[in-house]
Amino acid sequence: MKLTRQKHAKKIMGFYKHNFHFREPFQVLLDGTFCQAALRNKIQIREQLPGYLDGATQLCTTRCVLKELESLGKALYGAKLIAQRFQVRKCSHQKDPVSGSACLLSMIEEGNPHHFFIATQDQDLANKVKKKAGVPLLFIIQNTMVLDKPSPKSVVFVQKLQTNQLVPEHQKQTIVQLKEKEGLAKQEGEKRRKRKRAGGPNPLSCLKKKKKTQEGQEPSAEKKKRRKRKRNRVKTEGVQSVQKNEKE
């Protein structure tokens, strides 16, 4: 049974590694309900979870989760002690704390860019997590931690990704950040502004070239003939005058 459970987890981890780029150490966000269930079932989360996920893990929580556990008093005192041992991730509710479930949901917004796992026994929170693509869900059944199979939302997302219908949100942000770092975004904007709109042809180039017609060439030819006749006439008259003078 243990081998079957580990094979099941390995297959699911392969799905998230390949399609959503999850890498070690795996960051697991835990809420108070998961810590309470682990305490009740005598589960050593820090020792058992890395073996189950087949990789190093970082157990994390948020200030909102810790505040919520404090407000619930002695009933969840043991769960609070467990949660206090974990790393605290910064959330956006420093001044105005919210419920633990609302805080964890805010941590996986915009495509879960930090690749968090969510560990909870809260069924309402689990249902909301399943509506987001690329968020692995952990829960406890009896005395065993279980990695839930990929949600239909995640499966559909991967199918669309494979047909090049969309780009993951975290990849879009990465591309924008890289462009800003290299100054490419600004250059592209300048190129767009400098680009001239396509206009019509130059009106001067559309003018028809004047062709030399035969009519235009004929007057110049006649002028040449007249000049030639005039020169011949002058020569003839000169010769005749010379001959006349010789006779006299």
TrEMBL record:
Keyword match Nucleotide-binding: no
Cross-referenced Gene3D superfamilies: 5'-nuclease (3.40.50.1010)
Region ranges (Disordered): 179-248
Keywords: Nucleus, Ribosome biogenesis, rRNA processing
InterPro entries noted in UniProt: Fcf1/UTP23, PIN-like_dom_sf, UTP23_sensor
GO biological process terms on file: rRNA processing
Domain of life per record: Eukaryota
Biased segments, Polar residues type: 238-248
One Pfam family cited in the UniProt record for this chain: Fcf1
Main location: nucleus
GO cellular component: a single term: small-subunit processome
Subcellular location: Nucleus, Nucleolus
All copies of domain UTP23 sensor motif region, residue ranges: 192-211
Record's compositionally biased regions (Basic and acidic residues): 179-191
SUPFAM superfamilies: PIN domain-like
Feature: compositional bias, Basic residues: 223-233
Functional description taken from the UniProt entry: Involved in rRNA-processing and ribosome biogenesis.
Family of this protein: Belongs to the UTP23/FCF1 family. UTP23 subfamily.
PANTHER family in the cross-refs: RRNA-PROCESSING PROTEIN UTP23 HOMOLOG (PTHR12416)
Protein name: rRNA-processing protein UTP23 homolog
Annotated organism of origin: Falco tinnunculus (Common kestrel)
